[in-house]
Amino acid sequence: MTLARPRRARSLRQRLLVQLLAIAALLSAVLYMTVRTVAGQAAEATQDGVLGSATVIIAEQLRGGPDGLRIDLPYEAFSVLGSISEDRVFYRIVAGGQTLTGYDDLPLPDDITPGVRPEFYTVGYRESEVRVAAMIRQMVASDGVMAVTVLVAQTRLGQEAIAARIANRAAALGVGFFALALLLSLVAAGSVLSPIERLAEAVARRGPHDLRAVDHPAPRELLPLIGALNGFIARLRAALVRTETFITEAAHHIRTPLATVRTHAEIALRQSEDPEVRNSLRGVIRAVEESSRSASQLLDHAVVVYRSDRLTVEPLDLAVLVTGVLRSVAPVASLKDVSIQMAPVAAPPTIMGDRPLLENAVRNLIDNAIKYSPEESEIDVSLTVERGEAVLRVMDRGRGLSGQTAAKLTQRFSRGSNVDDVVGSGLGLTIVDEVAKAHDGRLSLEDREGGGACATLSLPLL
Amino acid sequence: MRNAVVAVALMVWASMATALEIEEEAILPGQPGGETLAILSTTDTAYFRPVLEAFQRANPELTIRYVVAGSQDVYAAVTERKMAFDVAISSAMDLQMKLANDGLALPHEPGAALPLPDWAQWQDRVFSIAQEPVVLVLSRPALDGLRLPQTRRDLVDLLRDHPDRFQGRVGTYDPRQSGAGYLFATQEARQSDSFWRLAEVMGAVDPLLYSSSVDMLDDLESGRLTIAHNVLGSYAADRVGDDSDLVAVEYQDFTLTLLRTALIPDNAPNPEAAGVFIDFLLSAEGRRLIGAEAGLPPVNEAALMQNPHLRPIRLDPGLLVYLDKMKRRAFLEEWSAAMFQP
């Protein structure tokens, strides 16, 4: 079965980063424009304030009287204009349409109302742009009341310099803001996506038989996904359990009638004298035996599959366990005149394991050896400790692996190519392999020197 | 025909020459075919020649024409386009400031020159090359044991207590004639009311009025004057000392400190050479020469810090105020009223 590769959409991280950065870029631009505009306005307001004050102070120095209009220009009013920047300063005082003093070509405002506050305008003068503060005062002079206009003008080099400096700072601020946002976006994307990544890792790390529900902590947004996943897992597990139950039930229901058939066939064999009938009956008995054995191995396998998901582990002395199994198979071995020899165990290895599973595995291993051993041969069993593992070796003088790989032989319902004359279901080594894996151990098969096979079951020590 | 052209040319030259009242003119010829750097200055050639010669050694191709005129004439030469110069050096800060403010000075970015403090430079157009205290100079023998005045108030008391001794023997600038004199008088009046008391007391002893510090110092040496008020310190420094009869006093209430400034007029025929010259004046070597050879104290902020009575006249738009025609008329009227008592 090949898994369909999921179609790839744009990565969440990329999507998140692009959107965050677009927002940051927009905000940086807005920040730049705002700082520039506000600071530019502030600079202009400051300069206007100074220019306006100078105009007011000068206007206040106007004196009327019978000798005509006089003005005593205040030194400080001009001096203060130079305090902020080194801008050029112009002024003009016009009384009744005549320039009293100052620069007589400084442009007058188009329209201005008399008042106590100066009005501002920008105009070109002497090859530069100047900001003018204009103020009109009514004065009593020798020939009656006349309107006196006071103009004070200043170039805007200082303000432009300030504006340029602020623009640079604002640009630096915007770039800095964007850089910071970039950094924070990376951190934020990582932080937002880390629960998803952790969950994906946790799910990917699971073994092929792990059908437990996913209970990894997940953000609320992922809970429906996990719920759905757990639903799938539960249904899958239920389906598996149903299958194994069905196999168990089926095996059980098959074994009982088979035993009856066998008993009847054996009785008939004893009573029959006809060699042809006896031959047929022997064939029946063999077939029944084979079926019965298959059924019980199916049962064993179902038990192994079911239990390997939820092991009930306890400290076990493997030597005791193996001895027990050897005792239980002794009748089968003696039937075939096969003798089993167990080498003395130097140090009894203790492992953490599930007793019924391990008994099942060891029994299948030895059953297998008996099954393929010729009559009147020997099986050697040894139990040693090697490199932190308990190693059980079962060596027979059978027909060996005959070129088949261990991986092929441990597949379900797969049997060796040289075994057609031996009763077998092909499940024995599969059971051993699955038990070994459930205990983080392994099963290996190889040909034995001088003929036969050697099966090695390695299990980690406690 | 040819003679007529020559005649017209001579007439034009003559009219230009008469238009500008030249006090001195010196030409330092450079390599033939080289350009000419024309400098218009209020500083006497004798003071500035070592600086000019050092500059010419560094720039041998330049022919230097150094013209000395009064500060009003320096201003008028630029504003009225009487004659084109590449550099205008003047002790009348207000007139220099007005030239720059009215757009008649070219900007110049000083090259490797040492930076000036901000009160000694305006924009990139007016550069200070020397800072000079304005001092009181007295003739020691004529004082005949009287205490040396240290403040303007001391001087007022001295003149008031001994009017006969100082009758016709006090000299000062005529602000109507001299740009520098007008600047000193107006700045003094701005700083302190004692100026007017002093003017009245001086007016009572029939003062002599001058348009240059050198003339005042000459008359002090000849014995015609006993007291000269507001003499440029750099000129006075040459004439005073232990072996001299003259003594210079820096007023302890406040001593005006003038900045001698240079700018490039907007009609300069050779502004590049002018820029090179200004950079030379502002360089360490130029400042050393101005101080050691020309005897003009170079711009030095530390010296002002150590001598709190020195009050520099700042280069700022305030200087334009006393150039206002109404303000000038009013000031001179008041000054005349104090000075020429019936």
UniProtKB/TrEMBL annotation, chain A:
Q: Which residues form the HAMP domain?
A: 190-241
UniProt-recorded name of the protein: histidine kinase
- Lineage start: Bacteria, Pseudomonadati, Pseudomonadota, Alphaproteobacteria, Rhodobacterales
Q: What is its main location?
A: membrane
A UniProt-annotated Pfam family: 2CSK_N
Where is this gene product found?
Answer: Membrane
Q: In which organism is this protein found?
A: Aliigemmobacter aestuarii
Entry annotated with the keyword Transcription: no
One Gene Ontology cellular component:
plasma membrane
Q: Which PANTHER family match?
A: SENSOR HISTIDINE KINASE YKOH, SENSOR PROTEIN QSEC
